[in-house]
Each structure stands twice: as C-alpha cells, then as structure tokens.
Amino acid sequence: MNTVYCHQCSKKTELEHKVSFREECSYCGSDLHTCLNCRFYDKAAYNECKEPSAERVNDKDRNNYCEYFDPTGKGKKSNSLNREKQLQKAEALFKKKN
Question: Do 49 and 80 form a contact (C-beta atoms < 8 A)?
C-alpha cells in the first residue's frame, strides 16, 4: 500500500499500486507524481532535489517522469506546521527578557 499526501490539498490518498506518472489526487485533481510530493524535494538543495542523480525538473508541482520519485507521506500541512514550530522556537530563543 502506498500513501501519498497531496501537495495541493494535503488529503491522504491510499494506492494499492506504485504511484504512476499520471496519477491525480482524487480530491482536488492535482498531480501526485511531483517533486513537491517526493521525499527528495528540498528547496535549499541544488535543483531543489537531494537526489544527485535525478534530472532537473522545472515544474515542481506537475507530473514528471523522475525514476527516483518516492512519496513523502507528509503533504503541505506537515511542512507548514514544521516551519511554524521552527519559527516559534527561533523566536523563543531570541526573545528579549524584560
């Protein structure tokens, strides 16, 4: 069973097969085989991908034919929550004490 969280709506999709190149979210219709849904996606990395052998993909939110695709199981909500937690920790660390 493969679990994919849509980068657009963050809904969970369970698939009994490998995520195909043309797979779409059953809730919002967004592409699922995308860089934004891949565990190797990293905005800070070269080409925004941690997989050094992967070819460059320009449209990170569109279906692509990358053979290294591996669903993250995170989705947009987890990424934004993680960012919010990191910001809160940074603010607490640098907060002025009166």
Answer: no
- Of the candidates 37, 91, 98, the one whose C-alpha atom is nearest the C-alpha of residue 63 is 37
- Chain centroid to CA 78: 9
CB 34 within 8 A of CB 19: no
- Distance in angstroms (rounded) separating the CA atoms of residues 26 and 34: 15
**pTM for this entry:** 0.73
Task: Give the whole-angstrom CA distance, residue 74 versus residue 48.
Answer: 17
Q: Which two tokens mark 42?
A: 């990293």
Question: If residue 82 lies in a helix (H) or strand (E), which one and from where to where?
Answer: helix 75-94
pLDDT greater than 90 at residue 95: no
